[in-house]
């Protein structure tokens, strides 16, 4: 059976769930806004459509239009009855799509309450749809439907009763699921099921914190992990530069401009106080127009941040905090509630010394030791021409130098989570709104490996 998989960056994971008799009609990920062009260009023969959260744009009106266009294409293409299966974590989706589900009987919605929808949910759902007796899928629109007549009661065979010994018979072995062939995808699948991580990405200002947070979040979302960014940098508010829709919304909506404060005040209401980037990907921060000192004093506190972390770790696979080192002056008590730290350090001696100096100024030795023990080094803006003691200043050398005795505050060896390749065009993602992981395979691989190391924990 041929399935149209509409799952954005989740495409590879979903297609790995397809049974032997199923295949995807396209090799790469598709989202709802791209469907119109794809269908008109390819006009594929289909037996079913699967849509996941990653396909939706986050704009309900536009999503309904795109979904309606798909359903009309199915009807106009004389393919009535093709199942359209929507698997989602959004409990509001049934209400949002109610007009369509009433009009089109071939839509099936499955709402999962799990943090990350298991792959077997997709496999079972598609298998059930494949075995449904939809007699009108492949017939011409002009042909008459076959009538199914009830068999007379007297001709029916009596139902076979279960034997007492049936309960002791061994059950058939479950069918093995196809495994992903990509090593990184396999590794991420192995460590991410049911796992929740709270990771504070930190370092001295200017060391690439925000770009690291943004690309890690995009990569995690693409891999099917529910993710939220908490931009705690109330001074620079850099996430506004990377998410133009969030910035535009904060300019028009005072409540969204205060998103971080509202989310700190009511963590359980994050779905209304935070900004939905895309289905399983959320952001909370401050707009440039927010300047309410009283609210900041009331809610921008360690106690509120601890409460927020406690709630969000039960809702998301990955909670990413954009947390410059100097903020730990105010939020030092929250450190114990973070699972690990991604310590951003460019590979040059000045950056290493600045990182050590910032830690010594901001923290006491006890807090610094905790940061040291729970950190993985992220070498940002990695320059493969940078040298130290006449040899290449490699990523592992950055970690080694930090703990080489330059400071009593760094006593424990730190592993490297990964490195970000340097490029003159790296910052173009601010103007284009396109994350670096979508600009080249080297960035996708770099942040994928980094994500894997962070999900593994400290």
From TrEMBL:
Residues 128-181 are annotated as: Disordered. Gene3D superfamilies: P-loop containing nucleotide triphosphate hydrolases. Residues 189-247 form the Helicase HerA central domain. It holds the Pfam family DUF87. Coiled coil: none annotated. Residues 129-181 have a biased composition (Basic and acidic residues). This is Helicase HerA central domain-containing protein. It comes from Paenibacillus faecis.
């Amino acid at each position: 059976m041929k399935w149209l998989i509409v799952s954005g960056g989740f495409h590879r994971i979903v297609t790995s769930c397809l049974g032997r008799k199923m295949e995807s009609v396209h090799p790469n990920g598709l989202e709802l806004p791209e469907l119109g062009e794809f269908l008109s260009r390819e006009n594929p023969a289909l037996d079913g459509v699967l849509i996941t959260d990653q396909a939706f744009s986050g704009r309900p009106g536009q999503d309904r239009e795109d979904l309606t266009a798909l359903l009309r294409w199915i009807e106009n293409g004389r393919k009535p009855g093709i199942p359209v299966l929507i698997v989602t974590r959004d409990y509001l989706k049934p209400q949002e799509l109610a007009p369509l589900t009433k009009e089109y009987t071939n839509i099936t919605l499955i709402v999962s309450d799990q943090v990350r929808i298991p792959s077997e949910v997709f496999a079972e759902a598609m298998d059930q749809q494949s075995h449904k007796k939809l007699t009108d899928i492949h017939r011409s629109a002009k042909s008459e439907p076959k009538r199914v007549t009830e068999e007379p009661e007297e001709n029916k065979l009596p139902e076979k009763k279960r034997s007492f010994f049936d309960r002791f018979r061994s059950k058939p072995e479950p069918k093995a699921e196809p495994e992903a062939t990509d090593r990184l995808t396999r590794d991420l699948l192995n460590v991410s099921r049911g796992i929740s991580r709270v990771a504070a990405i930190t370092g001295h200002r200017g060391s690439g914190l925000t770009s690291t947070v943004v690309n890690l979040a995009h990569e995690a979302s693409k891999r099917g992990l529910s993710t939220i960014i908490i931009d705690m940098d109330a001074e620079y508010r850099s996430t506004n530069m990377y998410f133009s829709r969030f910035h535009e919304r904060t300019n028009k909506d005072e409540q969204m401009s205060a998103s971080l404060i509202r989310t700190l005040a009511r963590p359980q209401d994050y779905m209304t106080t935070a900004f939905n980037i895309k289905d399983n990907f959320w952001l909370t921060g401050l707009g440039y127009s927010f300047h309410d000192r009283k609210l900041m004093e009331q809610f921008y506190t360690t106690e509120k941040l601890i409460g927020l972390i406690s709630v969000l770790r039960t809702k998301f696979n990955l909670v990413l905090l954009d947390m410059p080192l100097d903020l730990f002056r105010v939020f030092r008590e929250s450190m114990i509630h973070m699972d690990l730290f991604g310590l951003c350090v460019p590979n040059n001696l000045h950056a290493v010394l600045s990182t050590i100096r910032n830690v010594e100024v901001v923290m006491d030795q006890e807090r610094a030791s905790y940061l040291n023990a729970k950190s993985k080094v992220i070498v940002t803006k990695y320059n493969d021409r940078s040298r130290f003691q006449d040899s290449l200043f490699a990523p592992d050398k950055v970690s080694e130098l930090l703990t080489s005795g330059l400071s009593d505050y760094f006593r424990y060896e730190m592993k490297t989570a990964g490195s970000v390749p340097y490029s003159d065009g790296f910052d173009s993602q601010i103007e284009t709104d396109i994350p670096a992981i979508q600009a080249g395979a080297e960035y996708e691989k770099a942040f994928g490996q980094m994500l894997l190391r962070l999900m593994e924990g400290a």
